Amino acid sequence: MHGYDAPIYTNVTYPITVNPPFVPTENPTGCYSLTFNVDESWLQEGQTRIIFDGVNSAFHLWCNGRWDGYCQDSLLPSEFDLSAFLRAGENRLAVMVLRWSDGSYLED
Asked: Which SUPFAM superfamilies does this UniProt record tie to the protein (predicted)?
């Protein structure tokens, strides 16, 4: 719709100033982490994947301090392959969730 008119949402108003693709500099962020153990035998089985059933609105994923990916398909499943990052013994996942992304303008 760029160049024609502002998007029209009949049932909601944007909770942020409409200025696509930019988002507010004050962007609430949540950081979550999980430490878990993996047996050596598990690593021999093949790929290990993680599925997020839905995160609002965007997030980054790290496994053992290494960036594994980014997703901004709000509230849709997303899947990441952890195989290259996992090791036998203790492992740590970290997720940084951003409240706003340029994809926020596509949501109704």
From this structure: Galactose-binding domain-like
